[in-house]
Amino acid sequence: MHFEILVEDQSGQTMLEILIPKIIGEQHTFRFHDYRGVGYIPKNLTSHTDARKRLLLDQLPRLLRGYGRTFASYPPNYPAAVIVVCDLDDKCLKMFRQELFAILNACNPKPETRFCIAIEEGEAWLLGDIPAVKEAYPNARDNVLSRYQNDSICGTWELLADAVFSGGANGLKNKGGQTVGREKSVWAEKITPHMNVDDNASPSFRYFREKVRNLAQATP
Questions:
Q1: Whose CB among 57, 79, 85, 191 lies 3.0–4.6 Å from 136's, allowing a Cys bridge?
Q2: What are the chain's domains?
Q3: By 3-state DSSP, what share of the chain in percent is helix, strand and coil, each rounded to 5?
């Protein structure tokens, strides 16, 4: 099966480039598309934002319509699916999923699509595997890691920064937004290779893993 995987930032792509082969093996094909932020779902599902700004939700209606047309032209023995991965942040999960499915249901034809939402942020999937965090960062602060509750709304990336970054989240924030983004990619690059995809405590990661596996296993 072929997967088109849309993620909201570079750190998400770094993480998924390592995780996807661990989850479904190398026999499938996948292509990643990282964006420069999540943005907002446009009113009337028509984006008026410059596509060059590369905001995932702003462009999602156009992207899914395009994938629907493209996938419809594929031969039956070449199934394909879109996986949309983004952070929940401070949104209501139920309402956010309803908005995402409204985008998909407006497509004709509809591409095979799965929406996988990291709760609260993508770093929740890293923190779902504390042994992997410790393998990558042997000096990570146990007193910080031990207070994390999986998929809690707690300032997830800040907690990980407090555990592994010298100076913690405040020190990282003082270096500026671009430094934060680069450091998140470093965490993904260092921690993800050590992750056990079959033993992760994050419910939103397990949901993502099963959705991807179910699609791959359904392939004729």
A1: 191
A2: 2-122+200-217 (3.40.50), 127-194 (no CATH)
A3: 50, 10, 35
